[in-house]
Design a protein that fits this description.
This protein has about 200 residues and is an alpha+beta fold. The chain contains 4 helices and 11 strands.
Length: about 200
Amino acid sequence: MAKRESIEKQSWKPGNVLSPAPPVLVSCGGMQGWKPNLITIAWAGNVCSDPPMLSISVRPERYSFEIIRTMREFVVNVPSLKQARAVDWCGMVSGRSEDKFAGAGLTPASALKVRPPIVLECPLNIECRVKESLELGSHTMFVAEVVAVQVSSDLVDGKGRLRLEKCGLLAFAHGEYFALGRRIGRFGFSVRKRSREVRR
């Protein structure tokens, strides 16, 4: 039996240390008197597969908060490494005073099912309609149903599979951005590997 290595732990106060997170550009506005806007969000995640749903958490003082609460629609745009600077910039300035699409050098394009625009340069665009909002403290969580998805054609292989690893994905952890590394396996690879070894 392999010798177990010694692992020391420290006790920290409770905090938001779940990492890494996907930094995404959420687009909103575009109708009802709201100009198209972008907000950088790291607190986003899947919450249900049938129907497909995800959540984003937004501080009420953010300019985009009232837009999303009013229109009840938004688009989660998953950026690549090429959009890293734009992702950071959109998280540092306010849409109250800046045209974020123009300032970030990004292109608004038509969504399929919702009114806010997608970010054309982002490889993955997830169109959402808000189903529920939860006031949790510093942030309000918007739980939304995915009503349409657009993907960049050059990321779809000959078998119709989405190959997001080809574009270079971003991760966010403790105030820093990272490039995701090499792929080490598909879901279930540990079980399949053992099964093959047993058959030999």
